[in-house]
Please model this.
Amino acid sequence: MTVNEKVVGKIEKGFVVLIGVGQNDDRQTADKYLKKMLGLRIFKDENDKTNLSLSDVKGQLLMISQFTLYANCRKGNRPSFIEAGAPDMANELYEYMVEKAREQVSVVQTGCFGEHMKVSLENDGPFTVILDESLMG
Model:
């Protein structure tokens, strides 16, 4: 990932995590998503079964704030971002998530909150997972 043509975050095997913070999100919300994300067993084991978590494979995280995930496109052709968290609140919660992730994952890289970032991704495998309140138990 680059900002102003300077590499600011880069990982090897692991997750690229796009984080959208909503108006009603809080630390409890963040903790729930982190627990689910870090527990996902989507890496292949010795039998070629997706049975290993990020910690099992000593994976890394690239965590990127992405308010545009809250784009509401229900009406018209211009997305509305009214449901996204206010910048100060969203940045505080994003930084909290990064701090908590670093307590459990040895390599956590980040983007630059509020900056124009260029993200390159090589998706090696079948998984792109959306963690959303409505899709989690």
The chain has one domain: 2-123. The chain has a mean pLDDT of 92. Strands lie at 2-3, 6-7, 14-19, 43-44, 50-52, 60-65, 108-110.
